[in-house]
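Final report, closing paragraph on structural work. Over the funding period we assembled a curated collection of sequence-structure pairs, and we close with a single example.
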Amino acid sequence: MYRLLAGFCFFVCLSFLVSCSGNSPQSSSERTSEKPELKQVSLALNWLPEAEHGGFYAALLNGDYEKEGLAVTILPGGPDSPVIQRVAAKRVTFGISNADRIALGRAQNAAIVALMAPLQHSPRCIIVHQESGIKSFDQLKNITLAMSDAPAFSHFLRDRLKLENVRIVRYTGSIAHFLRDRNFAQQGYVFSEPVVARREGAKPEVLMVSKLGFDPYSSVLMTHEDVIAEQPELVRKFVRASVKGWADYLSKDSARVHEYIHSINPEMSVEVLDQGLDALKELSLDKQNKFTGDMSLERWQQLVEQLEQIKLLQPGLIQPQDLFTTEFLKQSP
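Its predicted structure, as stored:
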């Protein structure tokens, strides 16, 4: 997702925004000086601002958090962002991560709990060139594949596929090598890398990892279990505003959100965000085209079993029901 290239530009842009007059929606300190009754809340992202965080930015820009009495600061992440550790150490109130990372974090004694799943299906994909003739995962052979060793999906692929004569190299976050080499494949998110590749003149074939059966919830909102126990009304307000933000972003408010995301992450263009939105909707909306953010025990059970099968989790170490709660979704609009 231009993930490494975006970092430098983002922080330069962020410094500029902070030095300006305070018109940014994230300058919560200024708002709270005028409205001291607002409760300070922090949200740590798992990556630089992108479409996968759009609903949270919509809630910020539209004032949904403020209407709930919350002054929210959204903290962008980056490569190997330790969002799980930050939530577990209570350095931030809420965080964003994927369900598999939440499960693995819980296994490492991180007392984190999932609250809402904006992406009901995983956006994770492998992109290859159409010229390669590869149309399915079982045809992945005789190529170079850029794939990180850290995410659970890469272990799942290695476990399920033969990967005949496939040379796996480090994933850098850029599509530059993909654009140069027709025998090169790489990991990505369906609403980002394939869109960027097409804009650059390539013809990517998209292989969705979820089609192999590995389909964890993504961009999941989480918090520390102590926050749930000690401040349940705060959690309820934040979840309620976030659900509204996501529903608006996916149905009517994407233009403003995309312009803002581009302003703080210039490497992610408005055009790419706009073109990737349809793919994002397919991952987030139910069959009635409604946003719920809901989660089921069955899906979490399946994920835990898969992590055990690929030996990332010790069998019986964690219980699926401890990983999430839907209690705070019940009164959300």
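The chain has 14 helices and ten strands. The two ends are 32 Å apart (CA to CA). We thank the funder for supporting this effort.
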